[in-house]
Amino acid sequence: MAKWAEEGAKNAGAEVKMLKIPETAPDQAIEANAAWKKHYDKTKDNPKATLDALEWADAYIFSIPTRYGNLPSQVQSFIDTTGGLWFQGKLSNKVVSAMSSAMNPHGGQESTIQSLYKTMCHWGAIIVPPGYTDKVTFAAGGNPYGTSVTVDQDGNMKEHVRDAVVHQAKRTVQVTEWVKKGISASRQVSV
């Protein structure tokens, strides 16, 4: 999903750095799961996510697996290192969107995304879910919080999810442009 998000964001005109949160699981756990091992081997040399990268970016698109309906420990550990940036206000007004996957339907994808979004609220980030802004959301399972997918035992997913991920990435870039330019369609507020 991250590769599709990278494609969608680039096609929308964004400068993209695709980064991987460092793996902290023991080799034994990775070796015991063929799909995890395959993904690990394929991405082990990818550039790692850093605090400097968080400070540099105007927007983040997180593509994360679910762990019992929560963030994987690797993601939570990385987020736990961001306190200094948060304290300095360097994570506020960043645009954030998230996607998730699990090996079974209703495996916690939505709650994983919402768990991440709770942290983003603390950061003062601007959360950009795909909502129902395009019909591809319905084709990909209808999750308005962020694209979610069921992955089979071999790490494969349905190709129709690609369109939903690309849409979500393009929407994230569009909202980021609005935020950075200070453009608003209206200054009217209903309370």
Layout of helices and strands:
Blueprint: H1 2-11, H2 27-31, H3 34-43, H4 51-56, E1 59-65, H5 73-79, H6 83-87, E2 95-102, H7 109-123, E3 126-127, H8 136-139, E4 148-150, H9 161-181
Parallel strand pairs: 1-2, 2-3, 2-4
Helix pairs in contact: 1-9
Organism: Fulvivirga imtechensis AK7
GO molecular function: FMN binding; NAD(P)H dehydrogenase (quinone) activity
GO cellular component, one term: membrane
How much of the sequence is in beta strands? 5-15%
Measured between the Cα atoms of the first and last residue, the distance is 37 Å
- Which structural class do the helices and strands define? alpha/beta
Helical residues, percent: 40-55%
**Mean residue pLDDT:** 90
* CATH H level, superfamily name: Flavodoxin domain
Q: How many strand units?
A: 4
Question: What is the CATH T-level topology?
Answer: Rossmann fold
- Principal-axes geometry comes out as globular
Major pleated sheet: 4 strands, parallel
- How many whole angstroms does the radius of gyration measure? 16 Å
The CATH class turns out to be Alpha Beta
Low-confidence stretches: none
GO cellular component, one term: membrane
Family: Belongs to the WrbA family.
Pfam family, one: FMN_red
Protein name: Trp repressor binding protein
Give structural attributes.
43% helix; Rossmann fold; 10% strand; four-stranded parallel sheet
